[in-house]
């Protein structure tokens, strides 16, 4: 079986008990998305509610990677969790912006900023005054 042309590397750190920092390197596409999804599913299984996805070393992401990010976002919302993308490369940022994912999933410049957003909790729109 040949090696993938653009292998994916996924590292998981736990800055806090309920927070997983997932650092991804390589192409996040149809050939590598299953591995990425397996890491996220494992962290969900172990009770992580907040996901910090460091995409600073991902030169390319297709709809497969984007769909996995949106799926984990949906999963965590039910548990008052969150997903944050950290420092995506320009190509990945462009995909997130063009598809509107960056409106739903916050983008942070670094881990500290993402953790501060976790601490702040979700932004809830105010109810109009009658």
From TrEMBL:
Q: Which SUPFAM superfamilies match?
A: SpoIIaa-like (SSF52091)
What is one Pfam family matched by this protein? STAS
Which residue range or ranges hold the STAS domain? Answer: 17-118
Q: Which domain of life is it from?
A: Bacteria
Q: Which residues cross the membrane?
A: none
Q: Which family does it belong to?
A: Belongs to the anti-sigma-factor antagonist family.
Q: Which NCBIfam families match?
A: ant_ant_sig (TIGR00377)
Report the protein name in the record. Anti-sigma factor antagonist
């Amino acid at each position: 079986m040949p090696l993938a042309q653009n292998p994916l590397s996924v590292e998981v750190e736990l800055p806090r008990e309920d927070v997983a920092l997932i650092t991804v390197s390589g192409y996040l596409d149809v050939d590598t998305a299953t591995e990425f999804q397996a890491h996220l599913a494992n962290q969900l299984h172990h009770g992580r509610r907040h996901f910090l996805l460091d995409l600073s070393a991902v030169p390319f992401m297709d709809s497969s990677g984007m769909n996995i990010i949106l799926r984990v976002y949906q999963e965590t919302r039910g548990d008052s969790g969150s997903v944050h993308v950290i420092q995506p490369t320009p190509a990945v940022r462009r995909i997130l912006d063009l598809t509107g994912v960056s409106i739903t999933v916050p983008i942070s410049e670094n881990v500290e900023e993402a953790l501060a957003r976790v601490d702040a909790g979700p932004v809830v729109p105010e109810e109009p005054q009658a």
